[in-house]
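Our consortium's second objective concerns turning raw sequence data into structural hypotheses that experimental partners can test. To show how far this objective has progressed, the report includes one record in full. It was chosen at random from the queue rather than selected for favorable results. The single chain below, 336 residues long, was entered without modification.
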Amino acid sequence: MPHVEFFDRLVQLSNSGEAFATATVVGRRAPVSAHLGDRAIIYADGRMEGFVGGACAREIVKRQALEAISSGASRLVSIQPDATGFESGPDRRVVPMTCASEGAVDVLIEPFVQTFQLVIVGATPIASALARLARALDYRVVRVVEERERQDVEHEEATSGCSIVPLDRLDEVLSPPPSAAHDRAVVVASQGHYDEEALAPALRAGVSYVGLVASRTRGSAVTALLEGSGVPAVARLRVPAGLDLGARAAPEVAVSILAEIVQARSTRTGVTSALDMGRSTPVPGETAIDPVCGMQVDVSAARHQAEVDGVLYYFCGAGCRARFVQTPTEYLSRSS
């Protein structure tokens, strides 16, 4: 990927809020196809743009990048044929080069994951307290209010570091790709002024946490109105928002809401799971284990496959497939 195009793409991704990782070749030992400075971008859904080496290196880097995105920590990945005797650590992964090449390559992987975004709707004491506490957690806070209320909360933009957006632009705030929606929460605390108007776009956007500050009676009325209007996923609405901590004052209510958001984030499951070796139906985003070299293979993109006794196996390259087809029982006995 040309340098100018690479850095332009980074700016676009940063502005979109999408999670991704960069991979840069920082060391090599011939013979390898990668050169110093070769770069690639790996997206959270497994897509990869750019070049950091051949088929074996590409799959290794992709998998390591997805792990880095998940953990949020950079790592140096050393891919080499003589990996035995080298220990991996928190900042370095040593991975065997299972393809025929005798070369080695070092790739620096750096994840770029946007901080959690909390969208707070309403110009109320609870909304203000929630914004202050959320900033203390390093959340990106967006206050959404009616235009006529903007002057009432503008001082908070300077004191708490949150941004302020008018209510009629809420759709724009919620417009990043679906992958970004999993890293965002929306809390509506308008005291009934525009609850339904704010909740409908939040639920339609697929935001992982949507909460309403209201009594149970008011919450039931709002829920019924949303369902009657055909708004999707109303059952996911948290109302009253927050854990039952016995909170009364605005800051205490804010603490209970943040506690519920933290709990929801910690229990949310990932979207990518490993494919058990032997499953015959590929599922996008899942992986299989190459029975010859042990490498993880992206099932949806696997070009090399072989079927034995009705079970489909996936391979990192033509060489591994050829060895497997010649003596499949040798490799299947290893995995049993």
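The partners drew two points from this record. The chain has eleven helices and 15 strands. The first strand starts at residue 20 and ends at 29. Both points have been shared with the crystallography group to help prioritize constructs.
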